[in-house]
Amino acid sequence: MEKNILIIGNSAKEYSLAKILSESFNVFVAPGNDAISEFATVVDIRENNVAELVDFALENDISFTICSSEIAIEADIARLFEINNLRIFAPSASAASFATNKSIGKKLMYKLKIPTPRFGIFEKKQLAFDYLKNCQMPIVVKTDKHKPSNSVMVCPSEAIAKAFIEDCFFSGEEKVIIEEYVYGTNFTLYVMTDGYKVLPIGSIVDYKFALEGDGGVLTSGMGAYSPCLKLTDDHIAYLVSEIAYPLVDYLEQQGTPYLGIIGIDGILTKEDTISIIECNTFLRNHDAQCILSLIDHDIYKLMEACSIGSFSDDYDCIPLKDEFAVSGVLSCGKYKNSVIEGLDELQDDTIVAHLNTKRNEYLEYETQGDRVLVVTKSAKTLSRAKLGLYEELEFINFEGKNYRKDICATLDI
Fold first, then answer.
1. Does the predicted TM-score (pTM) go above 0.70?
2. Per-residue pLDDT tens for 324-333?
3. What would the 3-class secondary structure string for the chain be?
């Protein structure tokens, strides 16, 4: 009899994870999305309704839960599941606070002497304005919480920075973070941990700006490729030993061990220095399939080992495929309810994760605004993966279609 697995979330990363696990398990996803319902059972329970999620897990014989939703993590779903003797792969709210609250994360990095850009945290608008007077432009302004959009802006002038800060406080933000802008290659190293041992599961190069050449506004992500070629084995070893372990060890010493995945966002400069920007509590929508495609091991077994306490004994490393994966995000801007055409023309090994779509009465997928689909291609070489991705993107059409055409373009591949 197949085990029942519950995944908490409703976007592309949940689609990618559920698609893989549905080959071996009976998968439920709460709240899920229309596309996930093709291969898993979607459950109409909101991510922050953790009490109802506990009831569902108890009533439906859920043997294992994976929480990829930051909303549910902040609602402390891990603690409530553990109280009810339900196994879950997720950190507690207190353990994850350094990743869910940027100000807490910045203070912790400063405390642990983790290299991070110079920053200031402000609860009052005028204090933030005063700080800007001595800043060198461009400057980065961030909200304290991760948001789907408009949470970070690279400001080329003091006037633009002031306007964004004004908007943040006007919209109800309690804090803003002003951070020095660092030039270099944006990367994320993902690690998995049981709260004691830390092992890397892959790296990606991040494309967050909306337009080619890192133009336009910052988004939650417009594409990625994995692995990051500029990160050497020495860089990875440094990130694990000098960044990840100090964080994990500190949390364990505080009585809040972190169980789950940590995404470490950093910048590798031309001078070969590394600066850590912030952390995330799980894989992100635009790069999840890249990472999952290249893990050469059963992802369920890895997560289960963390939850039952055997991870430290069972694993000395997590095997990764000798391949490359490239993902591109298709967006539609403000256009909505446009039928997505061409999905049935894609090759079998092309993976399309639905980010913001719905199915109409004719079972066609329609756009719902902003970022719509994440398309991923894997190959033995990065150039072949890139070429395959862009060939497939041409087949997909809808009103307002847009995507970055320069993923991997700056590399000599």
1. yes
2. 999 999 999 8
3. CCCEEEEEECCHHHHHHHHHHCCCCEEEEEECCCCHHHCCEECCCCCCCHHHHHHHHHHCCEEEEEECCHHHHHCCHHHHHHHCCCCEECCCHHHHHHHHEHHHHHHHHHHCCCCCCCEEEECCHHHHHHHHCCCCCCEEEEECECCCCCCEEEECCHHHHHHHHHHHHHCCCCCEEEEECCCCEEEEEEEEECCCCEEEEEEEEEEEEEECCCEEEEEEEEEEEECCCCCCHHHHHHHHHHHHHHHHHHHHHCCCCCCEEEEEEEEECCCCCEEEEEEECCCCCCCHHHHHHHECCCHHHHHHHHHHCCHHHHCCCCCECCCEEEEEEEECCCCEEEECECHHHCCCCCEEEECCEEECCCCCEEEECCEEEEEEEEECCHHHHHHHHHHHHCCCECCCCECCCCCCCCCCC
